[in-house]
Amino acid sequence: MDFDPLPAKITTLFTDGGEDVVSKSMIERLLEGNLKFINRDFEKHLDFYKKLSQGQSPNVLWIGCSDSRVNPERLTCSKAGELFVQRNIGNVVPIHDWNFATVLEYALNHLKVKDIVVCGHSDCGAMKALSKETNDVYIPLWLNNAREAKERVDRKLPPTEDPRIAAERKRMIELENVRLQLEHLRNYPLVKSALHRGAIALHGLYYDLENGTLTVVE
Prior knowledge:
two-stranded antiparallel ribbon; 9 helices; single chain; Beta-carbonic Anhydrase, Chain A; 2 domains; disordered N terminus; alpha/beta
């Protein structure tokens, strides 16, 4: 199989007329990684990928965090086509959000998924941001969808300078956020109806970056 050589220089043009040179080594690494994927996986399973090219039928809608360390397919050893994934800052289920509602509607009405997962994780920057002042414009507005998780934990365990207790408190907020987002899910009419019919099940999961373990959030 032949491939065109990589361009010697790759640039991105901005509307202000300036020019920013993208790291060639970074782009090369991504494209070389794709070649490895083709050689090691795609070509060895051509029938599987040919079938996938005709359509998808995942059983799970996975709502996870955009964090680069939490790749749902990798940490669950799922194959292409098994997970329908929606990732955002803080694994949030926003209320009255068209982007999310579109994903949900497509997953339930067209893909007929049977399970919806909300997966949080340790060392979540979004959950840390709930306790910090910031000059950001969009992030705080988005994280209003998760703020109640922090407020619930505050009532049980107020902020502290003790590092050990502070670490436990951070984990509590991450877990409580998963529970809160599951509550948000249940408020969507589509989900209410599917739950009433017994057509779907909702699940909360938590991924620990230090040991690679997924656990169920009760």
